[in-house]
Amino acid sequence: MSRDIVVGDLHIRKEEPFFRAAKSFLGWLLEYSKPEDNIIFLGDTFHTSKPFPVENRLFLNYVLLFINKGVNIIIVAGNHDWNDNQESHSINILDELVSTIYEPEFLETKNHSYFILPHLPGVDIEKFINSEKFIEDYKDFITKSKAFLYHYNDETVMFNTKFSGVDFSIVEKINPNIERIGGHVHLNSYPNYLGTPYHTTIDEANQKSKVYVIEKEVKSKIELPDFILYKEIEYNTSLDDLDKSRDILTIKNAPSTDLVNKKFKGFNIRSIELENLVNIDEIASAEDTIKSDIGSIFLSFVEEKKVDSSVEKYIKDKLFNLG
C-alpha cells in the first residue's frame, strides 16, 4: 500500500557538513520509501536560488533513483527557490521529471487530498488570501482537501515576541476540519510546522527532525537519525567521542585558537571560547598595584618640584584619577 511522505525544507548547499547531511538524508529517504509512495517536499529544496552544479547533481541523482524505484515526487516551490534576477525557479530543471507546484493547486493521492499554496513571488499573500477572488477560485479545492500545505509563516509564528505570519484562518472557515502542514519555518516546536529533516542552523539544535507519513487514515511523524549535531564541548574532550562527518562544535576553555585548529583539524568548528587565563580578582589586584606605583611616583615629583596644590589636584583629577 502506498504512503504519502511529507518532507520539510531541505536547503541543499555545498558547504559541509550540510552537504553530507542532505546526501545522508536523501539516502535514508530512498531506503525508507517504497514503490508507489508519494514524497512531497514542502519547499526550499536548495539553500540559494542559483544552486551550484554539485548541489543540482546531488538532488537530480536522487530524483532519478526515486523515479527508478517507482516513487512519485512532488516539489512545492519555496521562497529560496525563486530567483528575482532571472525570474525563474531553481527547481525548473525538474519540471519534466516530477510534479513541481508553482501556483495554488489541489492534489489528490490514494491516501489523502491536499490544498497546496507554494510561495508566490511578488504577491501580497495576506491580501491574496482574503480576496474574493481567492475564495471564488479555490473554495472547492479547500472544501474537498484534508490537509493544507503551504510555504509561509502563519499567524502562530512569532518573531521578536510578536506574531509575524499570515492569518490563514480563512482556510479553516471554509473547511473547519482541514489539517495544516507548513514549510518555510524550520522549528517543529510550532504545531503547524514539520521543521527541517536535518539541522540547518543552531536554532534547530535541540529539536528532533521528522518526516510526516500518511497511510490512509493513519498519520505518524517518524523521527529521523541525527544527520547533524551541534555540540558544546571542552577543549580536553577526547576525539573518540566526536564524529567529523556530523558534529558542529563550539569548543570551550581552549588555550589558543592555534591549538584548537591543530587538535580538531578536519572537524566543523562553529566557535572557539578561549579559557580565562586571569580571573577578575587578579585583574583588580593588578590595577591596584599600578595605581599605587603611579601614586608614589607622582607624590615624589610633587615634593621634589614643589608643585602648587591647585596644579597637583588638577593633575590628579584629570590624568591619574587617583582621588
Explain this structure.
It is a single chain. It contains 8 helices and 17 strands. The protein has 3 domains: 4-223, Metallo-dependent phosphatases (Purple Acid Phosphatase, chain A, domain 2, 4-Layer Sandwich); 229-274, no CATH class; 280-320. The mean pLDDT is 90. The strands form 5 sheets. A 6-stranded mixed beta sheet has the order 6-3-2-1-13-14, with helices on one face. Strands 7-8-9-12 form a 4-stranded mixed beta sheet, covered by helices on one side. With 323 residues, it is of the alpha/beta class. Strand 16, helix 6 (257-263) and strand 17 form a beta-alpha-beta unit. The radius of gyration is 29 Å and the shape is elongated.
Quick overview:
The protein has 323 residues and is α/β, with parallel strands linked by helices. Helices cover 31% and strands 24% of the residues. α1 (18-32) runs parallel beside α2 (53-69).
